[in-house]
């Protein structure tokens, strides 16, 4: 009995520690994201010759872009890696739909999957929001486009980081085999890493676009962990 109580106490302590850490991450990354928007809109602004658009933190962004140049190989590679995003999101959506049909009630679907659905919905809203509320524009005009498109935050970076990051959190709940679980988590993390690096050096985004994508992803993932832990894992 004492052993059971001790295990429960340790589990509760770990849970509270994880929640506290997630709150800090959500708060700090969220504030930094908003601060970055203010800086990009107001500090060291200049007109980009290639696009005719105004850009903030120009010395930092322009210097980094001059260093990396434009490399469409990395752009295309990160586009291809987006297939993993579709497969993972589709897989969890299918799992949730399967549970809904089998259990015949939303209330009986695993709570973490319902939270995941909410996270995906927030992603769609944010994607649409930043397409309409433009913070800044791409450093180049893409082939087939008449003008530079919105680029902050990097929506591709945000989508991949959030979808694959949340998958890393949920895989342990649905994959029992330790080796397969570890392989799947490593694949997800590699997709995130390659996407962030690829988008950073491909030259179709500013440095602050990628930074913004990472910061908002950290905020969303931390909030997802908080909400899903509060409501229970399954």
Q: What can you see in these coordinates?
A:
The chain is mainly α. It has one domain (2-231). Helices cover 75% and strands 2% of the residues. It contains seven helices and two strands; from the N terminus they run H-E-E-H-H-H-H-H-H. It has helices spanning 2-42, 58-68, 72-103, 111-132, 155-174, 178-201, 207-231; strands spanning 46-47, 54-55. It has a two-stranded antiparallel ribbon with strand order 1-2. A hairpin with a 6-residue loop joins strand 1 and strand 2 (54-55). The longest helix is centred in the first third of the chain and has 41 residues, at 2-42. Residues 1-7 have low confidence and may be disordered.
Strand order of the largest sheet: 1-2
Number of strands: 2
Shape: globular
**Separation, N- and C-terminal Cα atoms:** 26 Å
Give the H and E element order.
Answer: HEEHHHHHH
Let me know the average pLDDT: 89
Question: How many domain units?
Answer: 1
Give start-end ranges of low-pLDDT stretches. 1-7
Percent range for β-strand residues: under 5%
| Radius of gyration (Å) | 20 Å
Major sheet summary line: 2 strands, antiparallel
Structural class: mainly alpha
Count of separate DSSP helical elements:
7
Residues in helix, %: over 70%
Write the SSE topology.
Blueprint: H1 2-42, E1 46-47, E2 54-55, H2 58-68, H3 72-103, H4 111-132, H5 155-174, H6 178-201, H7 207-231
Helix pairs in contact: 1-7, 3-4, 3-5, 3-6, 4-5, 4-7, 5-6, 5-7
List keywords for this structure.
234 residues, two-stranded antiparallel ribbon, single chain, mainly alpha, disordered N terminus, 2 strands
């Amino acid at each position: 009995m004492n052993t059971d109580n001790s295990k429960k106490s340790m589990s509760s302590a770990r849970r509270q520690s994880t929640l506290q850490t997630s709150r800090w991450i959500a708060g700090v990354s969220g504030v930094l994201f908003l601060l970055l928007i203010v800086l990009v809109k107001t500090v060291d602004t200049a007109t980009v010759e290639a696009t005719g658009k105004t850009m903030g933190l120009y010395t930092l962004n322009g210097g980094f872009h001059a260093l990396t140049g434009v490399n469409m190989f990395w752009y295309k590679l990160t586009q291809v890696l987006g297939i993993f995003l579709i497969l993972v999101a589709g897989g969890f959506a299918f799992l949730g739909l399967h549970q809904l049909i089998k259990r015949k009630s939303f209330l009986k679907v695993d709570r973490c999957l319902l939270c995941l659905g909410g996270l995906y919905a927030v992603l769609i809203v944010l994607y649409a929001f930043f397409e309409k509320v433009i913070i800044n524009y791409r450093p180049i005009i893409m082939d087939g486009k008449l003008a530079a498109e919105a680029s902050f935050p990097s929506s591709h970076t945000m989508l991949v980081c959030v979808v694959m990051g949340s998958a890393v959190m949920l895989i342990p709940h649905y994959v029992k085999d330790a080796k397969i679980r570890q392989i799947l988590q490593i694949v997800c993390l590699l997709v995130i890493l390659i996407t962030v690096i690829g988008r950073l050096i491909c030259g179709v985004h500013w440095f602050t676009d990628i930074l913004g994508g990472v910061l908002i992803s950290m905020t969303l993932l931390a909030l997802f962990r908080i909400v899903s832990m509060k409501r229970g894992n399954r």
